[in-house]
Specification:
The chain has 373 residues and is an all-alpha fold. It is 60% helix and 3% strand. It folds into two domains: 220 residues, Orthogonal Bundle (Citrate Synthase, domain 1); 98 residues, Cytochrome p450-Terp, domain 2 (Orthogonal Bundle).
Length: 373
């Protein structure tokens, strides 16, 4: 039996039922603990699990990998648009427009049937990492397509850097994408479900989700996390800096309430990878700083680290720009957004948000000449 939800905080509300993800007592996708999935599976398996509701059979997984290879290339118009982007365009904004352009070029653009939506889901699953890699790397290699001999994470790293990734880097990236894939009813997920409730196309729903995700996982917070890790040189300085940030803004970049000191499951999984990658890349100093800051954040505000806190560190250790973190998280989250879209569009009920009116009622209308200035 599913656990009862925790007591609601201000601003929280129950939207509807889902059988995709549960956060408590542990983060699970379709009943599987995310730690086990990150350790034992690759991202395409998890994407199938989220979208279809069960783990793929060997035959289904082989078919999925074949589909990723077949559809894992972009239209020339999309490539040209991505590689000629002005430098100042934020990554998530670029991806939102690239998805919109992809939608107009899709061979089933006008087909809103359920089978067509499912086919679009898997085409997008093949193409999104190529678009995301172009945004992160600023360009694409000549063979900008999905390579079947590499994992999903390995394909992303190859496309973003232009070089074949190390095996451990590819495995780490797959783990990152797995733990990023879904987190129940986040605002961006709700946007996808609201879009599905209107029967909009799945690519249109993804545009809505990306628009909201830009506020949910802002670029400036990723940069602030990196600045914070660079700013300290002792436990005492970390405590002083965190206390000042908390007193001035009551916001700690990379931390949040309702997160236990040890972090949620996603953070624990990626912390193990960050430790390994930092040691190999000679970035142990950032990991030491992270320990100091985490202790200070708990002492000052009783806040634990968020997914972004660990992903920013992994970006640095993998040789990618730290402000690529929101784009990389979105590459995993696409699977969750599309899974929620498919769950919602199969439902017989629509999401109909209601507002609790708190304004005045039954006021007497006065003609303009009778109103005092």
């Amino acid at each position: 039996m599913a656990p009862r939800p925790h007591p609601l905080s201000p601003g929280e509300f129950v939207v509807g039922d889902t059988s995709i993800t549960v956060k408590q007592p542990s983060l699970q996708y379709r009943g599987y603990r995310v730690e086990d999935l990150a350790r034992e599976s690759q991202f395409p398996e998890v994407a199938w699990l989220l979208i279809e509701g069960s783990l793929p059979s060997p035959e289904e997984l082989a078919d999925l990998e074949a589909a990723l290879s077949e559809d894992g290339r972009l239209d020339e118009e999309v490539i040209n648009w991505l590689v000629n982007l002005p430098m100042h365009v934020p990554g998530l904004d670029a991806l939102r427009t690239a998805v919109s352009l992809t939608a107009t070029l899709d061979p089933q653009a006008q087909d809103t049937s359920l089978p067509a939506q499912r086919e679009k889901v898997y085409r997008l699953l093949a193409r999104y990492p190529i678009m995301a890699a172009a945004v992160v790397g600023g360009t694409l290699p000549d063979d900008a397509e999905y390579h079947s001999e590499l994992s999903y994470g390995g394909n992303f790293l190859r496309l973003a850097s232009g070089i074949e990734p190390r095996d451990d880097h590819a495995t780490a990236m797959d783990a990152l994408l797995v733990v990023s894939a879904d987190y129940e009813y986040e605002p961006s997920t709700l946007a996808s479900r609201l879009a599905a409730g209107t029967r909009v196309d799945v690519l249109g729903a993804l545009v809505a989700a990306l628009s909201v995700f830009g506020g949910e996982c802002p670029l400036d917070e990723a940069r602030a996390v990196a600045d914070l890790l660079d700013a300290v040189n002792s436990p005492e300085m970390s405590l002083e800096l965190i206390r000042r940030l908390w007193e001035e803004r009551a916001i700690l970049p990379g931390f949040g309430p309702r997160i236990p000191r040890g972090g949620d499951a996603r953070v624990r999984v990626l912390n193990d990878w960050a430790d390994q990658l930092a040691d190999q890349a000679d970035f142990e100093v950032w990991e030491e700083h992270a320990d100091w800051i985490e202790a200070a954040a708990w002492e000052v505000a009783e806040q634990g680290p968020t997914l972004l806190w660990t992903v920013v560190r992994m970006m640095k250790y993998l040789g990618m720009p730290v402000d690529a973190a929101p784009v990389v998280i979105s590459t995993g989250r696409v699977a969750g957004w599309m899974a929620h879209y498919m769950e919602q569009i199969r439902s017989t009920w629509k999401l109909r948000p209601l507002g609790a009116y708190i304004g005045p009622i039954d006021l007497q209308f006065l003609p303009v000449d009778d109103r005092s200035t």
